[in-house]
Amino acid sequence: MEPSGTFLLLLAFLTLLLLFLAFRGGRRAARLPPGPPALPLLGNLLQISPSRTLQSLLKLSQTYGPVFTVYLGARRVVVLRGHAAVREALVENADAFAGRGRMPTVEKTFQGHGVVFSNGERWRQLRRFSLTVLRDFGMGRKSIEGRIQEEAQVLLRELRSTQEKPFDPTYLLSCAVSNVICSIVFGNRFDYRDEEFLELLQMMNESFRELSTPWSQFYEMGETLLKHLPGPHTKIPRLLARMRSFIARRVRKNAETLEPGLPRDFIDCFLLQMEKEKDNPSSAFNTENLELTTLNLFFAGTETVSSTLRYGFLMLMKHPDVQEKVYEEIERVIGRDRAPNIEDRSRMPYTDAVIHEIQRYSDLIPMNVPHAVTRDILFRGYLIPKDTDVFPLLSSVLHDPSAFKHPDTFDPSNFLDENGRFKKNEAFVPFSSGKRVCLGEALARMELFLFLTTILQSLRLQPLVPPAQLPSAPLESGFANIPPIYQLRMVSR
C-alpha cells in the first residue's frame, strides 16, 4: 500500500523538525570540543563500535584532537586523550573534573550511592570517612603489611600444593587478594575452600567480565532505547544484588554484636558513625551507603589486584629473562631465609620497575571510570557545561609515546634510568589521578610487591606452551581489559 499524502507531509515535517533541533543544538554546542556529527537517539553509534570502544575513540581523536565530544545515544561525553590533556583536567583542574559520570550498566544497583558512584556532599563525606577508616585499619602501614605477608604465605602453600601440575591461577589469586580487603571490611579472612566465599568470588569475577563485554558497551550507548527491554544487560544488576545481599547479612550480624568501644572492621565503624549522625538529615551515613560502599571496597579491592597479578604471571612467562632477573634481585637483596617486606622495594629497582610495567602494560581500566564536570568550565578554549560526562582515557596516558620510550611493548626499562635506578613517571596512572584517584592505591601497591616477590622467591612460573604462543589479547576489552584464561605450572626453585 502506497503511503498517504498526510503521512508523507508528517514525515517531511518531522524530518525538518529534527534538522532544526540538530542545527539549534549545534549552535548551542558551538563552544564544545569538536566531534563527529551525531544522529538523533543513536548519537555516534555508527562511529563507535561496542566491541572496540577504546579503539574507536582513539581513532576519532586522530581527526578531532586530544579533546573531543561524542554522543553515546543522547548522552554527551567529552573524551580526553594523552598524558597532557588528562593531567590538565584531573590534576590541574581537579575540583571541576571531580564529578562521577554516569555508568548505566550499574546505575540500577548504585543509583548515586556508595563511595565510587556518589557525587557532591555525599561523596565527600563517604570518601573522607573511608580513607580515615582504611588508614586506621593499617592501609599503607606496617599493620596491614603483616596481614599481607601472612596471606602471601597461605597462597604460597596453596601454589605448592598443585605439585607442579597445570592449573588455572584465577581463583587462588582472587582468594588471597580478597582476604586482605576482607580482613578490613569484614574483620576476618575466609578459607580458600569456603563455598560461600568461592561463590562470591565467582559472581565478582563474572560481573567484572560482563561489564566489559560488547553488549555492556552497547548498553552504555543505547541505554535510553534498551533499559526497558529484556537482555544480557539485566545480568549485571542481578549479580551485584546477590553480592549486596551477602554484605547486608554481614551488616545485620555486625549490628547485633556491635561493641561501641571496640570496632572490629569497616562495617562496625560505619555503624557507629550512623548512630552518631542519626539526627543529621544531611548525613550520608545510612544503611544503603554502608552496603554499597562496602561493595565498592570489596569489589575493587579484589578484582583489580587479582587481575593485575594474573596479567603479571602471564607477562613473566612470556618474558622468562625478566622473570629470572627479578629472581636474581630477590636472591641478592632478600635471600631465601626470610619473607619479603615492603622496605625491600626501595632496594629492588628492577623488581619495582617490572611491577610498574605490568600495571602499565595490562592497562586494566583503559577508559577510566567516567568522570563529570561539577561546573561549567572553560577548558583549552572550549566551554564544557556542568554535568557533562568525561572519559579520561587512561590507556592513552599509559601508552603515550611522549611519556614512555617503548609505549607499545612490555619493557621494564620504561621505569629505569640509564644507571638501572627506578625512575618515576607522571604518566603512570593505573589508579587514575586527581580527586577521584583510587582509594586503595597504597594497599594495592603493597599487595602487588609482596605477593609477587613471595611467590617468585620460591617458585618458577612455567608455561605449558612456548612463551611466544601464550595468549596476549584480553578475554574481553570494554570497561576493563579482562586477562585471558591460561594454565601454568609452579616449579620449585
Structural class: alpha+beta
- In angstroms, what separates the terminal alpha carbons? 80 Å
Report the count of strand segments. 11
CATH H-tier superfamily: Cytochrome P450
Here the CATH topology equals Cytochrome p450
In CATH, the architecture is Orthogonal Bundle
Radius of gyration: 24 Å
Order of secondary-structure elements: HHEEHEHHHHHHHHHHHEEEEHHEEEE
Q: Mind sketching the topology for me?
A:
Layout: H1 5-28, H2 53-64, E1 67-72, E2 75-80, H3 83-90, E3 99-100, H4 104-110, H5 120-136, H6 142-160, H7 170-185, H8 195-210, H9 214-226, H10 235-257, H11 266-276, H12 287-318, H13 320-333, H14 349-362, E4 371-372, E5 377-379, E6 382-384, E7 389-392, H15 394-398, H16 441-458, E8 459-463, E9 476-477, E10 481-482, E11 488-492
Parallel strand pairs: 2-7
Antiparallel strand pairs: 1-2, 3-4, 4-7, 5-6, 8-11, 9-10
Outline the structure in words:
It is a single chain. The protein has helices spanning 5-28, 53-64, 83-90, 104-110, 120-136, 142-160, 170-185, 195-210, 214-226, 235-257, 266-276, 287-318, 320-333, 349-362, 394-398, 441-458, and strands at residues 67-72, 75-80, 99-100, 371-372, 377-379, 382-384, 389-392, 459-463, 476-477, 481-482, 488-492. It has 493 residues and is of the alpha+beta class. The protein has a single domain, classed as Orthogonal Bundle (Cytochrome p450), CATH 1.10.630.10. The strands form four sheets. A five-stranded mixed beta sheet has the order 1-2-7-4-3, with helices on both faces. Strands 5-6 form a two-stranded antiparallel sheet. The chain has a two-stranded antiparallel sheet with strand order 8-11. The chain is globular. The N and C termini lie far apart (80 Å). Residues 7-17 and 19-28 have low confidence and may be disordered.
